[in-house]
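Weekly puzzle thread! Below is a chain. First person to post its structure in token form gets bragging rights.
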Amino acid sequence: MPPKKNPRSLSEAEFQRVFREVRGDINELQLHDKVFTGVIEELGRHERIGINFPAFFNAFLAAMRTDLIIRLGRIYDPESSHDSCTLARCLSTLRDNPQFFTPSAVAARLHEDYRRFNPDYLSFHCVDLKRIETDLDKITKIRKRLINLRHKVYAHKDLETVLSGKQVEFLSTHEEVKELIQLAHDLWNHYSRIWNASTYSAKTIGEDDYKHLFTYLRRGMKIKTVLDNRRTNRIIQRINSLKEGR
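Winning reply:
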């Protein structure tokens, strides 16, 4: 394994790009998890849809599971021989760059109206180094089962894992996935609020679109049933007419 190298120093503008990149994955995770969970619930309520389209929904759900693990793996990727856009990297960058929080640097990031309505804004926009260390420790502890799964099942097929069948130390429930997404969302919002007084909602535009899809599928299946019945009745009538004509 290549030796661990010192992380690249980031300028304020570079940090902001990395921070936004991590947020992008969090946003996608929230949307994809909502759709994934919702589709499973709809399939449970309307079993005929899953029975009629098994290949499509099996492929869709497998792809969504992979996407959730890969995106979470990117956000929680451990520090190693390569530089990555991770949540931990964002927190350590804030910790290691006190120049980002000088009065002039903070004022430059905040809108004039915000500063005017919050005259003591500087007290809100400073990092708590102990809180950062606590959060970094939290990330390290919570990601272990995720990274084991990502490394040995999704990114690679670990030979020993395949032969032994043991996955005791692997992330195994969707509740764990939700917990990881929620932690990433909460931590990102906490430090974004400190950075430039902005946060993201946990809700995403279009997150309920799948409900309309199932509505249209049910309607389409009903119409197909009606048309199939009519066709069957016509065939039966034709056969009966032929029998009567003999």
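Puzzle host: Confirmed. Bonus trivia for everyone else. Residues 7 and 83 are 6 Å apart (CA to CA).
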